[in-house]
Structures are given as structure tokens and as C-alpha cells.
Amino acid sequence: MTFGLGVITCRAAVAWKTGSTLAIEEVQVEPPKAQEVRIKVISTGICGTDDHALKGLLSANFPLIPGHEGAGIVESIGKGVSSMKPGDKVLILIIPQCRECSACLHPEGNFCENVLPSSGLMLDGTSRFTCKGKKIYHSFRASTFTEYTVVPEIAVAKIDAAAPMDKVSIISCEVPTGYGAAVNSAKVTRGSTCVVFGLGGIGSAIVMGCKASGASRIIGIDINEEKFPRARNLKKPVQEVVMEMTGAGADFAFEAIGLTDTMVCGLGYGVCLIVGLAPSKENLHYIFTLVFFWVIWHFSNLIIIAFFCFADYKTRDCTPQLVIDYLQNKINIDPLITHQLPFDQLHKAFELYHAGKTTVLSARNTVENKQQ
Ligand SMILES: NC(=O)c1ccc[n+]([C@@H]2O[C@H](COP(=O)([O-])OP(=O)(O)OC[C@H]3O[C@@H](n4cnc5c(N)ncnc54)[C@H](O)[C@@H]3O)[C@@H](O)[C@H]2O)c1
Ligand SMILES: [Zn+2]
Ligand SMILES: [Zn+2]
């Protein structure tokens, strides 16, 4: 066992303030404290949630090292860590699973009480990162846009030793959230019609899950004309177009953008699942008011609406199994990766993301640590 050795100096992408571009900086990463793990990050994806956080749409403390969708190798462990050892392949998880709190003990619960996404600090209230003598905050206690990170053991899942590390990072958020939204949360039925608002990483994985569930028709909607060519000449509200296309409407609607307007659009269908995270400052009460009136209006045709997180999966339990499913060719995540770039081109990956040219970055860490 290697109990947290010295401080590691490595490269990381730092967001110095809200809205600033990422700067690749030399940072110091402290050894893991008790119940923590220090991980060499091998690949990381860009999720819409990182973009929301960087734009200040979700509450976060700056300066921070963003990123939460990551795969890596355990470098060292803190005292008391028992579920993994140095050298193990792992996924870093935005939602921990402590297996002790009421949410974790509930058979249907997954929103572990140890989620404190906005604090930017570890469970003991301190940070493990510094840069130029300044404290740097963690992002969702994950921070994967760095060559090394420190994460609580409860937010790490040990995965199969055969896992290809340049690919499986997307199984730490995108795949379970999107694919799971269809197969686990909505339980999409064979022969059904599904509508997916937003064809980014999450929406694409939802489409994959709808297909795997046997949906006979899947309608994807996006403002990006390359993904949804009809967006070019749309002369009426998109929900009217969908009604015309489907006649009676759809059986399942998924919102995978994070806009309250499109969440409201999704309410017109049988089962509406909201995956997108709305800006924390926006008042969601008006959605609930609309739902209330909509349910009354359609009292003979009950509408079910659900907001959910990580597709209701218990994170440490489900992700290793999804990796095995991928290794056994039961699911194919490869098409979800559009570009793979080296770590020092993270900002290029963000440019591609903002231009709608990428859904995921898989950034292989090719730089050796100075202290190794
Ligand atoms: N609930 C969860 O557990 C969970 C987990 C991960 C991500 N999320 C959220 O899911 C959402 C999507 O994440 P992502 O990684 O796929 O992001 P993304 O940026 O890759 O995809 C968003 C897509 O929505 C499209 N879009 C933007 N505005 C639109 C509009 N007005 N109409 C139609 N399409 C529009 C974009 O062109 C893009 O293709 C985000 O809000 C993210 O925070 C939730
Ligand atoms: Zn994510
Ligand atoms: Zn818990």
C-alpha cells in the first residue's frame, strides 16, 4: 500500500474566474488524506455541466480545476481506504455513493448526502490543489482537467483491469446518465416513440438507450443544424412540428439541454424526463406551476414528469458493470466519442465543443510527472 507520498507538481487547466478561458498551469497536488485517493487522470470528457459551471450558471467557487468525467489509475491512497490500491483502474464520479446515508441505503435512492457540488472542497473542508501559492477549488469534488487529482474514496469506482482508459471516461457520467435515462429511469418500451431535446453527449447517449430499448421512432431536436437539419427552416414552435410528425405525440420525452424553455416544451408528452441541469439562478417554480396546470388540463391523460440525476443509478455499483458490458460488446460507446485530443489541447477541445463539433473529449495524459 502507498499511503499518500509527497506533493505532486503537474499540469492542470485552471479557470481563474467565472467565464475566463482555461489556462494550463503548473499546480501542486497534495497527497490524499484519510479516506481519499490520488489518481493519475488518463482521460476526461467535456460534459455540459462543466460548461454551465464555467459560465457561472451553477454555483461554484473560483479559481477551480473543472471536469468531473474521468478515468484514471490510482497513484496513492490515504489511510482507511480499503476498496482500491495503487495501480487499480478507476472512474471518478460526480455523485458519490457512501453506502451509509439515507439516500444510499434507500433501494431507489442515489443522491448521496455527501454531494456538495458548490463547496469546491473535500469532505474535511480543505482543498488539495494550489497554483502560484493560491488555493484552487475542486469541481464537484472531482476535478479531472488535471494530470493528477484527489477524490474521496466514496466518489471512485474500481473498474475492470482490461478497460481501455482512453474511452471509458465517458462511462463516469455521459453513458450512465444518458443511456440510463432511457433504459433505467424511463424504462422506454418496445415500439414506443421518443423525443430527445438536445443532441449533445447526453442526448446522444439517450438516443442510444432508446434504440437499445426497442423504440420504433426516435426524434432528435437540436438548434445545431448539422444535428437537426429541420432547425434551418423551422417556422413554428418545435413542439408543434413534433405533434405533426407523430400525430398523437410521443410516449417519452427527454430534455437534455438544461433550458427551462425546452423543459416546458417536453411537458406535452406522456412521460417527460428532465436530464438537463437548469441554471441555478432561474426560478424553477414556474415549471412546477406549468406542470400543475398541464396535469389539470390533461386530467384524462395523465402526464408524468421527473427530474433525475445519474439516471437513478447508484454510482459505484453501476459504473463498473457498464464497463464490463462495454468490454463484452453489450453496449457500444465508441460512436459517442467524436474527437480525442492531447491534454495540452484542452482549450481546443472546448472550442470544438462550443462550435458544436464535438460531444466528448478524451484527453490522454502523455506527460510524465516531475516527481516520478
Ligand atoms: N441529470 C444529470 O445527472 C446530468 C448529468 C450530466 C449532464 N447533465 C446536464 O445535461 C445537459 C446536457 O449535457 P451535455 O453534456 O449533453 O451538453 P452538450 O452541450 O454536449 O449538449 C447540449 C445540446 O443542446 C443543444 N441545444 C442548446 N440549446 C438548444 C435549444 N434551445 N434547442 C435545442 N437544442 C439546443 C446544443 O446544440 C447541444 O447539442 C446539461 O444541462 C448538463 O448539465 C445532467
Ligand atoms: Zn457530467
Ligand atoms: Zn450516501
UniProtKB/TrEMBL annotation:
InterPro entries: ADH-like_C (IPR013149), ADH-like_N (IPR013154), ADH_Zn_CS (IPR002328), GroES-like_sf (IPR011032), NAD(P)-bd_dom_sf (IPR036291). Residues 34-159 form the Alcohol dehydrogenase-like N-terminal domain. GO terms for cellular component: cytosol. Residues 201-277 form the Alcohol dehydrogenase-like C-terminal domain. The chain crosses the membrane at residues 252-278, 284-311. One of its GO terms (biological process) is retinoic acid metabolic process. One of its GO terms (molecular function) is zinc ion binding. SUPFAM superfamilies: GroES-like, NAD(P)-binding Rossmann-fold domains. It comes from the Eukaryota. Keywords: Membrane, Metal-binding, NAD, Oxidoreductase, Transmembrane, Transmembrane helix, Zinc. Its cofactor is Zn(2+). Belongs to the zinc-containing alcohol dehydrogenase family. This is Uncharacterized protein. It comes from Suricata suricatta. The gene is LOC115294795.
